[in-house]
Amino acid sequence: MPHVTAAVLAGGAGTRMGAGVPKQLLPLAGRPVLEHAVAAFQDAPEVDEVLVVMAPDHLHEAERITAPFPKVTAVLPGGSTRTDSSVAALRAVDARPGSDLLLLHDAARPLVARSTVAAAVAALEHAGAVGVAVPSSDTVVRVAPGADGAEAIAEVPPRAELRRMQTPQGFRLEVLRRAYAAALADPDLVATDDCGVVLRYLPGEPVHIVAGTEANIKVTHPGDVEVAEALLRREAGRGAGEGGR
Ligand SMILES: Nc1ccn([C@@H]2O[C@H](COP(=O)(O)OP(=O)(O)OP(=O)(O)O)[C@@H](O)[C@H]2O)c(=O)n1
Ligand SMILES: C[C@](O)(CO)[C@H](O)COP(=O)(O)O
């Protein structure tokens, strides 16, 4: 059996939320957002170990929140971008040989389903990289400045080919290691997720997709915690196990 490490990325500042504290520390149904995300991996039988990558000024809060979770083996300081925090997780795993698979998950996605974690790990039996995604119900367009300089539609990609990426995103360690070795040598590296890093820097490496759930939202803007609370209540109403949580 492969050794699976999940890294919960909680190194962000929550600027868009504007709460005065990082959004992963905000209460969601009585527990911090971060605790929900960590609990999802603690409860996942496929996961052996959990690392938490926390905003450097809030390491002690993360240590306190995660202390009851026996799978949490380290709380590490994050970097200034999400990519830097992913690299911090990768380096920590690399420094302790024994891991085969690494799942990178946004702490800001506290409603990740157990079935999603299981599907991501299962896909790594045959794939080097896997992302979780859902179809888009909106039409998604690419924009560019028009002739008058104002934003205009430049392209309407076929919606059936589009997916919205979520986390966790999972990798065989040697794949993520090679991808980031190339990425970090690129002075123009800009990435919004880790599957994108593999796709760009290891073009021969297929990145598989498994279906996510609509409930796996990323708490990002004011009001999202209330949405997450409503989703949690709905999942609780469906009963444990049903609805995937
Ligand atoms: N330097 C960073 C930035 C982000 N993250 C984490 O990556 C996830 C997704 O990032 P995002 O939603 O952008 O979180 P923030 O960076 O906190 O939000 P904002 O951009 O509004 O400041 C979050 O769990 C966040 O804590 C991280 O570990 N390290
Ligand atoms: C990784 C991610 O959650 C996939 O949708 C997303 O790209 C993170 O973006 P953010 O700007 O760091 O929230």
Automatic annotation (TrEMBL):
Site (Transition state stabilizer): 16, 23
Keywords for this protein: Isoprene biosynthesis, Nucleotidyltransferase, Transferase
Assigned EC number: 2.7.7.60
CDD domains: CDP-ME_synthetase
Site feature Positions MEP for the nucleophilic attack, where: 159, 218
Alphabetized Gene3D superfamilies for the sequence: Spore Coat Polysaccharide Biosynthesis Protein SpsA, Chain A (3.90.550.10)
Pfam families per the UniProt record, alphabetical: IspD
Gene Ontology molecular functions: 2-C-methyl-D-erythritol 4-phosphate cytidylyltransferase activity
Stored InterPro entries: IspD, IspD/TarI, IspD/TarI_cytidylyltransf_bact, Nucleotide-diphossugar_trans
Nucleotidyltransferase keyword on record: yes
Catalytic function, reaction form: 2-C-methyl-D-erythritol 4-phosphate + CTP + H(+) = 4-CDP-2-C-methyl-D-erythritol + diphosphate
Function: Catalyzes the formation of 4-diphosphocytidyl-2-C-methyl-D-erythritol from CTP and 2-C-methyl-D-erythritol 4-phosphate (MEP).
PANTHER family with a match to the protein in the record: 2-C-METHYL-D-ERYTHRITOL 4-PHOSPHATE CYTIDYLYLTRANSFERASE, CHLOROPLASTIC
Family stated for the protein in its record: Belongs to the IspD/TarI cytidylyltransferase family. IspD subfamily.
NCBIfam families to which the protein is assigned, alphabetical: ispD
Protein name: 2-C-methyl-D-erythritol 4-phosphate cytidylyltransferase
Annotated source species: Nocardiopsis endophytica
